[in-house]
Amino acid sequence: EAGVTQFPSHSVIEKGQTVTLRCDPISGHDNLYWYRRVMGKEIKFLLHFVKESKQDESGMPNNRFLAERTGGTYSTLKVQPAELEDSGVYFCASSPDRAVNGYTFGSGTRLTVV
Amino acid sequence: RKEVEQDPGPFNVPEGATVAFNCTYSNSASQSFFWYRQDCRKEPKLLMSVYSSGNEDGRFTAQLNRASQYISLLIRDSKLSDSATYLCVVKGLTGGGNKLTFGTGTQLKVEL
């Protein structure tokens, strides 16, 4: 079974540019989550999709961040325009419905804004 | 106060030692509890779930004390390969109950 796949693995962009991160969840997993870890801080929740619907987006830092999951399959997280404080590692995770255990995480996208 | 608190370490222990990590959480309504392991520049991976009755998986034992809002992880006979950051994770603090809340992690270094 393929795991959670994230692309790109690394991205270096200039302040003010736009970056789009992609996540392909495990096939059949309705739940998809985005988390991020900024330098020196704990991993923090950004948002949760159930299929194509946003279940909880309470962790999105501001309106420069836009997440989509058209068709309920893969998801994208766009940052526009990027700021220096957006640098960090963005993790995607997925789980089946009624998951009682933790989730499976992707290997993350390391974003550096310079 | 952070929602999930851990001692960041590092814990430097010799191979074969027993090491214990502790974690406290602030919200008594939390539903599920986990220990994740994260290797350097890798994603977090589920190590084990934590139950009030305690659970053991080989050299690893996890325990939950709901009254004290305290979670522990015990590693016996430490191996070099156990070197990693151990993340205390709580599920269901807010919203629909699916959100994971992470501690900052405790770094373990097992040495020869």
Give your account of this protein's structure.
The complex is a heterodimer of chains A (114) and B (112). Chain A is built from no helices and 11 strands. Chain A has 114 residues and is mostly beta strands. In chain A, the strands form 2 sheets. In chain A, strands 2, 4, 5, 6, 9, 10 and 11 form a 7-stranded mixed beta sheet that branches. Chain A starts with a strand and ends with a strand. The model of chain A has no long low-confidence stretch (mean pLDDT 93). With 112 residues, chain B is mainly β. In chain B, the strands form 2 sheets. In chain B, strands 2, 4, 5, 9, 10 and 11 form a 6-stranded mixed beta sheet that branches. In chain B, strands 1-3-8-7-6 form a 5-stranded antiparallel beta sheet, with no helix packed on it. In chain B, a hairpin with a 4-residue loop joins strand 7 (60-65) and strand 8. The relative contact order of chain B is 0.34. The mean pLDDT of chain B is 92.
Short description:
The complex is a heterodimer of chains A (114) and B (112). With 114 residues, chain A is mainly β.
